[in-house]
Design a protein that fits this description.
The chain is α/β, with parallel strands linked by helices. It contains twelve helices and ten strands. Strands 1-4-5-6-7-8-9-10 form an eight-stranded parallel β-barrel, surrounded by five helices.
């Protein structure tokens, strides 16, 4: 399945305040993304801290985001788990709550085989009618979607794409070769957005676009128009900010960046902590370069 999603897809933070989801802040962030030209939003992806949210909070957040978006922008919901049954249940709930798509990270910690990965995505896709994007991020999960497995899962009817965050461009290129025309490839690593788009990626699922959606969209547009000189200029401008946004584990820095920009994002939930002061100075310096 191809062409379900494309362009700039922002992996949204979840703002918290007084121990609860800050829906006022989330609404402002959604508006900021729409105004900035984002094409879709991922709610409750890794950046959204779903692992520290209750089921009620997650359902409320999906419901709110779908209503706030009002069909102006597509809402993709994170629904992965290390338990296939839980991932399937989360995907079914997201569909019932009005999501436009599902992002499912590979099973983590259990370290299943490549056969297990295939069966996992087959089960999720078989339980919903929505397009599903598989998410490969072995640094977090301990499991890697091999290119051969990517080719196999690309044959599943509503498998719409693979978000690649392995950091291995040789693997990404081989995966693209194997899935081209069967399902789409998305960059899941901001530093590699441009090269992944250049080999035929359909879009980027970006963390840095939480704070710089217009610039990420500008880079994407330059690539799609074949203007690689301009695309490189924008990516060169973004790279120091991208580095600062990953100076500590995601989403610690980008959440602080949203606070700096006035979005009242709050602190990450434990065991994550607020950005260290020395790192905050570097982040602030890079934000000032973008926003003055």
């Amino acid at each position: 399945m191809i062409n379900c999603f494309g362009g700039v897809i922002t992996a949204m933070i979840t703002p918290f305040k007084d121990g609860k989801v800050n829906f006022d802040a989330l609404g402002k962030l959604i508006g900021f993304q729409i105004e900035g030209g984002a094409d879709a939003l991922v709610i409750l992806g890794t950046t959204g801290e779903p692992s520290t949210m209750t089921e009620d909070e997650k359902q409320e957040t999906i419901r709110y985001a779908v209503k706030k978006a009002g069909k102006r922008i597509k809402i993709i919901v994170g629904a992965g788990s290390n338990d296939t049954a839980k991932a399937v249940a989360a995907a079914v709930k997201a569909e019932k709550l009005g999501a436009d798509g599902i992002l499912a990270v590979t099973p983590y910690y259990n370290k299943c085989t490549q056969t297990g990965i295939y069966e996992y995505y087959k089960a999720i896709c078989g339980a919903v009618h929505l397009p599903v994007i598989a998410y490969n991020v072995p640094s977090r999960t301990g499991v890697n979607i091999a290119p051969e497995t990517a080719e196999k899962i690309a044959e599943i009817n509503n498998l719409a794409g693979i978000k690649e965050a392995s950091g291995n461009m040789a693997q990404v290129c081989e995966t693209m070769r194997r899935i081209r025309g069967k399902c789409d490839l998305f960059s899941g690593e901001d530093a590699l957005n441009l090269p992944i788009l250049a080999i035929g990626g359909a879009g980027v699922i970006s963390v840095v676009s939480n704070i710089a959606p217009k610039l990420v969209k500008q880079m994407y547009d330059y690539v799609t128009n074949g203007n690689y000189d301009k695309a490189n200029e924008v990516q060169d401008k973004l790279l120091p900010l991208i580095d600062a946004c990953f100076i500590e584990v995601n989403p610690i820095p980008v959440k602080e960046a949203c606070n700096i920009l006035g979005f009242d994002a709050g602190n990450p939930r434990p065991p994550l902590t607020r950005l260290e002061e020395g790192h905050k100075e570097k982040l602030l310096k890079e934000i000032k370069k973008i926003y003055g």
